[in-house]
Design goal:
Length: 865
């Protein structure tokens, strides 16, 4: 082994802090990345193995395999490198314990087992999708983080499946007769040294699932030989015999995973996930109590006959009832739709009776209004109140509202006012309030903006907690009034669900989640329910989760669309909205006609318009392409769209025969060229971590990339292997967002002499592409996007993408002045969240533009647990 690295020693840019552990494939250290100032984990290959080609090959194979995977249930690889004779891989630092260590305390409850199993299965599905098989799945290679995230570790035995010329996947992972793995978790084909595929991991998953449920390994013997012999020949004991009341469907999942013939197992991890989701809808099982013995009584002959008949009928009915109960021990949840108009619902609450609902909605593009509805009626009544958002309803029938008409402004806050439930004059109370909630004794808790940051007060005027974060997506006082549940938002929408006590102490219940609107206590105060997507899992829409005050988290329900949670009544009925999001593309029409919608699937994001104006380039990024960013081209004659390849669309070439796209390979991003007609894809090779790119009029490429010194701009000739920097570090055009645009930018002047760039504070500069000092242009403001230039390169057109309607501004380059040019909107404003990106059409006067629309439907849900 290598000599232990002492605290303070360095491996490249990484400073060792302390040792974390060691295994057959290397030693693991906690370290600090001195460039990004974050803590990481470093796995170091033992020095004795560094000179052994086979061990070194396996070590590098682990880095390559995991580096291709970007999934919340697989440990992330940040870097790989070597220093002299030391080879290492840099990974995300995890806090928590392995599943193996957790199981030392005994089996997990079935519900917790399902939570862990679902996440393992999702991680395997992501790996198998990239044709990677783990080959050593076991509890010691499954990590349980402190925020209830499951991470699959140690792909040191993984190997990517090869692809044949006809794109059929070869199953061969090992040479014939080669046995690799941990004996107690091997598949039968692995024991025999046969070729393996993803179904081998499914067998190993079944062994892990069995052990989580029972606390026992189904095959482990006194020696590895006996264990492997059992895997080949012995049928394990039924898990249901070891776990009382184990649901039959879960027993079948275990059995199906452990089939010795790969053809008889689940054929994919996605099939496995489907059955696990069905298991999660069934309670962990309960036995029917034996009926109490009735007291003995004397009956006459007639009475006995009647009693016998009654018993026979009852028995028949009882058998039917028992069969139904066994098939479905808990009735399915009952959902009831309450709204039927088009638009977005921002908030909703039950009143004290649990049958009346007040909600704030913007219907058909109108301002935000308050409405009253009954759970037993499809009709809604508009309340005679000012335009406002609903914050809370007290037990006495008083409403806390925010006088803010911007339905999508979740962060800015508004004026807090109090108003009677059925109308009256609002009494304004406080400015800058983001959220508020009544306690059961009639006190108000509020989040509000102050000079010190965002401050939690309970009651009003009594500061409890202050943070510099944005806090926007939930605030609820517990039923006892002794603590407050909140969403704390960090970068983007990623944050945590936490409780804050009256003493100001914060306790995280669910960390590192991508939050969605919604937070509520159960009536008994034992759980907080919230809407969220686990961080990094952007392929999934927000679902509803529950978390106990001890941090035990579980899934309550999910649907194909986005769920926002609004309230829970005393009897456990949920009030939630089902939200559908769509991104589309509109081309301006001539002669006063309606704009033409060229949207294709569910998330069409405009990137560019061809030089002749006859084609649009765009990215599809959500459900229609299985959440894999994909480049499409569509002509304006309404022909079907053509798929060009995977990546984020950026820009047409000057002649329209090529398009530039950004593609992610693991954690690295690169530019690629996709032909619009016949031809092969070309990769732009420069070693840079690209974030945006475009074409210059002369056919060269211009790009922004991240470097160790900071982001900067480069120019590169097509076919060259090196890019030349044209800006100092810290000046760049930004990076693309496949869901929100970024490809739709025109920062380069038509004459190819200038490019618009920004520094890290948002100040704008015009950088000469041929070399020279950048000139600050103060008329371009932070947050402006470049939509195009005038033909003579003297005027730049910019806009702010979150405005509705969009106000296009004309920037005079020489005079450094800003003048309103035109406003752009859509004819159907129902649910319009954003207009943009904007692209100047070849006519130099009109703009093609994208839009994002969301529509909400309010539901009640009974029977969710």
């Amino acid at each position: 082994m290598t000599a232990p690295f002492l605290a303070g020693s360095r491996l490249g840019p990484y400073e060792i802090i302390d040792a974390l552990g060691a295994g057959g494939m290397g030693e693991v250290y906690r370290a600090r990345d001195t460039r990004l100032r974050r803590e990481v984990a470093i796995k170091v290959l033992p020095m004795a193995f560094g000179s052994e080609p086979e061990f070194l090959k396996r070590f590098e194979r682990e880095a390559r395999a995991v580096g291709q995977l970007n999934h919340p249930n697989i440990v992330a690889i940040y870097d790989v490198g070597h220093e002299q004779s030391v080879h290492y891989v840099v990974m995300e630092l995890l806090e928590g314990e392995t599943l193996g260590k957790r199981l030392q305390n005994g089996p997990l409850p079935p519900r917790k087992t399902l939570e862990v199993a679902m996440q393992i299965a999702h991680g395997l599905a992501a790996a198998h999708e990239k044709h990677i098989v783990h080959r050593d799945l076991k509890p010691e290679n499954v990590f349980l983080t402190r925020n209830n995230r499951v991470k699959i570790l140690d792909f040191g035995l993984a190997r990517q499946l090869s692809t044949t010329s006809n794109h059929q996947i070869s199953a061969r992972l090992t040479e014939p007769g080669m046995v690799v793995g941990t004996p107690a978790f091997m598949s039968p084909e692995q024991v025999r040294g046969l070729p393996l595929d993803h179904r081998s991991d499914i067998f190993s998953f079944g062994v892990v699932l069995y052990e989580m449920l029972t606390g026992q390994n189904p095959y482990e013997g006194d020696s590895p030989i006996e264990t492997m012999n059992a895997i080949l020949k012995v049928e394990p004991r039924d898990a249901g015999e070891l776990v009382p009341n184990l649901p039959p469907i879960l027993r079948r999942v275990v059995t199906h995973c452990l089939e010795k013939d790969p053809e008889a197992r689940f054929q994919s991890a996605n099939d496995l996930i489907f059955d696990l989701e069905n298991c999660s809808q069934i309670a962990t099982g309960s036995s029917l109590p034996a009926p109490a013995a009735p007291p003995r009584k004397r009956f006459g002959r007639t009475a006995l006959i009647l009693a016998a008949l009654v018993l026979l009928v009852a028995a028949a009915g009882g058998v039917t009832w028992l069969r139904n109960a066994q098939r479905n021990p808990n009735p399915p949840p009952a959902f009831k739709r309450m709204t039927f108009r088009r638009g977005i619902i921002q908030s909703a609450r039950f009143t004290k009776d649990g049958s009346t609902v007040i909600y704030a909605a913007s219907w058909d593009g109108e301002p935000l209004r308050l409405y009253l509805a009954r759970t037993d009626s499809p009709d809604s009544q508009t309340l005679p109140l000012p335009n406002a958002n609903l914050l809370s309803i007290s037990h006495n029938g008083e409403m806390a509202i925010a006088l803010n008409e911007n339905v999508f402004d979740w962060f800015a806050g508004g004026t807090l006012a109090e108003v009677p439930l059925l109308g009256g004059s609002p009494r304004e109370m406080m400015e800058g309030v983001i959220h508020a909630d009544w306690s059961s004794d009639g006190r108000l808790a509020v989040w509000r903006r102050t000079k010190k940051g965002t401050q939690l007060e309970f009651p009003i005027g009594t500061p409890v907690f202050t943070t510099d974060r944005q806090v926007a997506l939930g605030l609820r006082v517990s039923p006892k009034g002794d603590q407050i549940a909140v969403h704390l938002i960090g970068n983007g929408l990623t944050g945590e669900v936490a409780t804050i006590g009256l003493d100001g102490k914060k306790r995280t219940l669910a960390g590192n989640v991508v939050s969605a609107p919604g937070l509520a206590w159960t009536a008994d105060g034992k759980e907080v329910w919230f809407a969220a997507t686990p961080a990094g899992d952007h392929s999934a829409a927000p679902a509803i989760f529950a978390v106990t005050l001890d941090g035990e988290q579980r899934l309550v329900t999910r649907m194909p669309g986005w769920l926002w949670l609004h309230d829970i009544s005393r009897d456990g009925t949920l009030l939630m909205t089902y939200n559908v999001w769509q991104s589309g593309i509109l081309l301006p029409a001539s002669n006063g006609q309606k704009d033409r919608d060229l949207s294709w699937l569910d998330w069409s994001v405009l990137a560019d318009v061809s030089p002749d104006g006859r084609s649009v380039l765009f990215t599809e990024a959500r459900e229609g392409v299985a959440n894999t960013a994909t480049v499409y081209l569509r002509t304006t004659d309404d022909s079907p769209a053509v798929r060009l390849g995977e990546g984020v669309a950026l820009d047409f070439s000057p002649h329209g025969d090529w398009v530039l796209a950004l593609q992610s390979i693991g954690t690295q991003r690169r530019l690629i060229l996709l032909p619009t007609r016949a031809g092969e894809t070309e990769t732009v090779r420069n070693g840079l971590d690209a974030m945006w790119g475009g074409w210059l009029p002369d056919g060269r490429l211009i790009l922004s990339a991240q470097t160790p010194q900071g982001p900067r701009m480069f120019v590169q000739a097509r076919g060259a292997t090196a890019a030349q920097p044209i800006t100092p570090p810290g000046l760049w055009i930004g990076q693309v967002d496949p869901e929100g645009g970024g490809g739709g930018m025109r920062p380069v002047s038509p004459d190819g002499k200038l490019v618009l760039v920004f520094d890290m504070s948002g100040r704008a500069f015009l950088q000469p592409i041929g070399g020279g000092t950048p000139r600050e242009i103060s008329s371009v403001r932070p947050g402006d996007y470049p939509a195009g230039w005038s033909v003579d390169s003297r005027h730049l057109y910019v806009y702010q993408p979150h405005e509705v309607p969009i106000a296009v501004q004309e920037i005079d380059i020489a005079a450094n002045t800003r003048t309103p040019l035109q406003q752009i909107t859509v004819s159907d404003l129902a649910g319009i969240y954003r207009i943009g990106p904007l692209i100047l059409m070849p006519d130099g006067r009109s703009f093609a533009h994208g839009y994002v629309r969301t529509t909400s439907t309010l539901y009640t849900a009974k029977g969710l647990r």
